[in-house]
Design a protein that fits this description.
single chain, alpha/beta, 3-stranded parallel beta sheet, globular
Length: 104
């Protein structure tokens, strides 16, 4: 039981190596303390090279459930490719059903 509660305290993020320094810097300097104080969460970053990035996401997202990672960092230009390959879901129908107060 302790192991599963410990895992839920960590947000596992996958990002390409070239983005890691910037993400880690912002996390360390601006987000980590608030995230831990307010939500009792920490972030663990895993990095992969660009040549491994897409296959790592596809392997993790297999069977339509993220197994190791809670967050994949995407650049907006990559979204159409992943959508066409059915690697990410189209959330449009979910978003248009939300009341506008959700975004305020």
């Amino acid at each position: 039981a302790e192991e599963s509660s410990k895992k839920s305290d960590v947000i596992n993020v996958l990002l390409p190596e070239f983005l890691a320094p910037a993400f880690k810097k912002v996390y360390d300097e601006k987000l980590s303390a608030n995230l831990e104080d307010m939500y009792n969460k920490t972030v663990h970053f895993d990095t992969v090279s660009m040549s491994e990035w897409q296959s790592t996401i596809q392997q993790d997202a297999k069977k339509r459930s993220m197994s190791r990672y809670d967050v994949y960092v995407l650049l907006s230009t990559w979204i159409p490719t992943f959508a066409e390959q059915a690697c990410i879901a189209d959330m449009t129908s979910y978003l248009k059903d939300l009341d506008s107060s959700y975004w305020e």
